[in-house]
Each structure stands twice: as C-alpha cells, then as structure tokens.
Amino acid sequence: MKVLPVKNLKTTDADIIIVGGGPAGLAAAITAAKGGAQTVLLERGDFCGSKNMFGGAIYTIPTLEVYPDFLKEAPLERGISRHTYSLLGENDGTIISYEKKPKNEFFNAYSVLRPKWDRWCAQKAEEAGAYIVPQILVEDLIKEEGKFCGIKTANEEFRGKIIILADGVNSLIAKKRGLRKEIKPKDVALSVKQTLSLSKEKIEDRFNLDENNGAVHTIVGGPMLGITGLGFIYTNKESISIGLGISLQDLNLQKTPPYEFLEKLKNHSIIKPLLKDTEIKEYSAHLIPEGGYKKIPKLYYDGLMIAGDAAMLVNNIHWEGTNLAMISGKYAALTALEAINQNDFSANSLELYNKMLEGSFILKDLHSYRNVIETIENNSETFLGYYPQKINEFMETFTETDNIPKREKYREFISKTIKERGFVQFASDGLKIAKLAGDAIL
Amino acid sequence: MNPDDLLAKVKYKPDNVSHLIPNEDICKNCKNRVCEYICPAKVYEWDKEKEKLQVIFENCLECGACRISCPYKAINWSYPKATKGITFKNS
Using CA atoms, how far apart are residues A75 and B67, in angstroms rounded to an integer? Predict the structure, then answer.
C-alpha cells in the first residue's frame, strides 16, 4: 500500500484535497496550485487517465482557460474540422455534414485519447506545484462537527481544509455520505467503445480529411432505432473510436448486451466501409450522467465541493462533458482559494462555487436543456425511431427514379404519413419540439 | 455473442478477491437477472446447477452499470483496490 506524501508537505494538512484525477479534478489541481495552495490530488488508477474513457474530443476554448499551453504541448490526436450527422434506417441512411477549416488558427475541438491526455494534464498540474498521487483509493471522508475535513483510504487518514470531490459518475463517496440521491437507470447512459487501429493515410482518405484534420460522427438510429441512444465515431491520429451510449433504462428493457448493439452498428451497411481492415486495439465502457439539470445534487457543503461527472454536469445533446468538468473544477478551486484567503471553509463561503456555475454556460446550458433528455426518453420511438425512418423514407422517394410521376409519389408519401400518424399526433409532436426550443431560447 | 475477443484487448491486473459481491439470497429469487445482459464485460452468469450467480470479476470494466441496474440493489459494488483492475491505454 502506497503511503500518502505527507512528509513532502510543509504541514501534515493540505489546503486542498482533490479526489479523482480526471478532467474536473486535474483542472482543480492546477488552478489551486497556481493560486499558491498546498494541493494534493488522489487518483485510484495507476496514472491519471488509466481508468477514464470518453468518445471523444476536448474543446479548445474552455481547455485554454485551464491549460494555456496545451495547443503546443499536449498529446492531441486530430483537429476536428467536420461534424457528420447520420440518420440510419435498417439498411439505409441520410447523412449531413458541416465542415469548417480554421485559417492558421486553432480548431474548435481536438480528438484525444484519455490515458494520454489526462496524464499530460496531471503532469502540468504537477509542474504547477500540485502533488498528484496515483494508486490511492479514497474510501470515505472525515467529517467532524458537521464539517468535512479530510479523506480516508483503507488504512490511512489525511486532512485538508477543503475537499473537492471529482471522483466521477459513480461517486461512491457522495453516495456513501448521502450527498446525492441514488442514481436511477434513467439518469445515466451506458457507453461502450472500441478503439480500432487504422493507418493515418487510410483515415484521411476514407474520411476525406486534410492532413491531421479529424471528423466526429453522430449516429442516430440503426441498431438503436426507437431507443434512447446515440452512436459516435471519432478519428484519432492512427485509430478510430467507435461507440455508442444508450440510456441504462432502455438498455435494461432491451435485454440485449451493449456490445451487441455496437457490433450491429459496426456492421451497418453505411458504417461498415468506414471500418474496413481495422483491428480492435481496445474495448472500454463507462457510464455517462444523463439526468441533466434536474438531477444535479447540491454541490457545496461545509468543507466540500463536488465537480465534474460526480456533480452530474454533462450536456448530452452536444457530447459535452469534459469542458463542464474542467470549468467546474476550475471554479471549485478558485472558490477554495478565496475561502482559504478568508479562512472560512463553511458552506456559506463555498456557495460562491454555485454562483460561478450559475453565472456560466454550465448551469445556463443545462437549464436550457432541462427537459430534452426526459422528453426524448419518454418519446424515443417517435423522435429516435419514427422520424429518422420517415426522413429516410422521404429521401428514398426523392432519389429513386422510376416511371411513376413525381406528383403521385409525393401525394402517396403525404397521405400515407398522415394516415399512419394522424394530425393530432403530429400536432402533439410539434408542440413537444416547440416547448424544448422555447426552453432553450426564451 | 461473446465479448471474450473484446476483453482480450483490455489490460487487467486482477485482484485475488472480488470487488463485486452479490447478495446470494436475493439473486436466487431474482426473476429478470438484468446483470446478465447489462454488463459490457459479461461478468455475471447464473449457474443453474449450483443455483448461484457466477461473478467473473476479473473482467469488470468498472463502469457501474450493474450496480445501478439491479432493481434490488443486490450487488455490493466497490472499486477494485488501488493498483488492481483495468488500465486503459487507448480509450
């Protein structure tokens, strides 16, 4: 058992103890250390990133706020120049892409591999003066006189003025301490992913990319028609990541293992050519918070704040999680620095953290989308089944040439659609969409 | 389909003891055994002869899906000890 680095510290107590070396914890660590606080981060894996998984890509603007040098130094895979959205039917699909190449500037997002990226972030936090200690599993918190004031491992205790809990979606510690309600299957999605090796040249040819440019594919339907799930593909330097996330509630009802959905997606006629001659390099799985705004627990207590996935800060609609994690970690650290300055670690003092979240895109966006996932989950057959298929059906009608006059084909498409769905249902679907749009913009 | 080929690509340092402990009494009477198909690593399998849930904890990807899915909360789920379990390299 590894011993905590207390002998390296000036006193036996740290100013700030951070639990978890993912994007939230590491952003907190580097921010706190730069602010001059005695900062200790504890990570259960062999190194930061070794237990972590996502799609995925990191976003440049929020990342620059925490790691100003990352564009030059970090292990980035590809700059994302294209976003592709595929609506897959059983064996057809409608695909649209948006493409933008930056001019001499940075890309808006970069694909990364977490074991490399998180490890680099840990190195930067260490350079800033934080103690990053891997291979330490925090099992509980120390609470005295109603205040959190340290952590416990299997055989050690370690004290600090402020704890930042960034231990990920499962946050067993928050659960143990009753800091948040038990997660329900509808509050998370299960994501499985395969990293597939493919040469740089083949990736660029196959995905029609300039050198070192990358693509993100968002996939609706296919094996997930009618259920709350989305697929994704990210291009890395010499590999591609393909995976999907399906609401745990829907997955429970489907009685099909998640890797079978992924296998079906890989074999879909639209996707299969993209994956030709690849080899599986790694397989991974992770839960994604999906409950959104309504499921965010209280995030500040006497001596403690919660950040990142542990705080359920994820915006699923945009594949955003690491950015919310980084910025929430940064805000938690800034709040901690201010609290240390004032020598007041009470919840009252740490409420500043919540105010910063409320004033930022994090809680504003999550509030805008507060009803989206619930509405989709309750109507997944409609929005992720019927309409995607209908779009494909229309495209089939539109693109197929035969000897039937176009006008007859359109009329038949319309009358069939009205017959199968009915005006009332259309109006109801439209109202649901309008309500979500209203939430987002009003 | 068996995920063995997939799991062969994951680096594990398994512990000698399981970090996943199902409640045998509850599992015996469970009707749906959601754990058997929700797990991305096929950790759980009902052994009909022994009337016992087999737990191949060495394959666990540490996601937590079983913990949240089990309607009876019958799985005592913790992380593997420090230095044990999965180490991702390319995810």
Answer: 34
Q: Encoding tokens for residue A323? A: 């950015």
pLDDT tens profile A200-255: 999 999 999 999 999 999 999 999 999 999 999 999 999 999 999 999 999 999 99
Return the SS3 of A323: helix
Measured between beta carbons, which residues in chain B are less than 8 angstroms from residue A53? 88, 91
Residue with tokens 């839960």: A287
Phi and psi at residue A57, to the nearest 5°: -135, 150
Residue A39 CA to residue A55 CA, distance in Å, equals: 30
- Residue A158: burial class (beta carbons within 10 Å; 0-12, 13-18, 19+): buried
Q: What's the predicted TM-score (pTM) here?
A: 0.95
Residues A309 and A168: beta-carbon distance below 8 Å: yes
ipTM greater than 0.85: yes
- Among candidates A53, A137, A257 on the partner chain, residue whose Cβ is nearest the Cβ of B82: A137
Residues from chain B that touch A241, judged by Cβ atoms under 8 A, are 91
Please indicate if any CB of chain B lies within 8 Å of the CB of A181: no
SS3 content of chain A, % helix, strand, coil (to 5): 45, 25, 30
B-contacting residues in A 51-70 (Cβ below 8 Å) = 51-54
Beta-carbon separation of B37 and A257 below 8 A: yes
B80: DSSP letter: P
Q: Is the peptide bond before A79 cis (omega within 30 degrees of 0)?
A: no
Distance of CA A188 to the CA centre of its chain: 11
CA of B64 to nearest chain A CA: how many angstroms apart?
7
Tens-place pLDDT, residues B43-65? 999 999 999 999 999 999 999 99
Structure tokens, A118: 């998180």
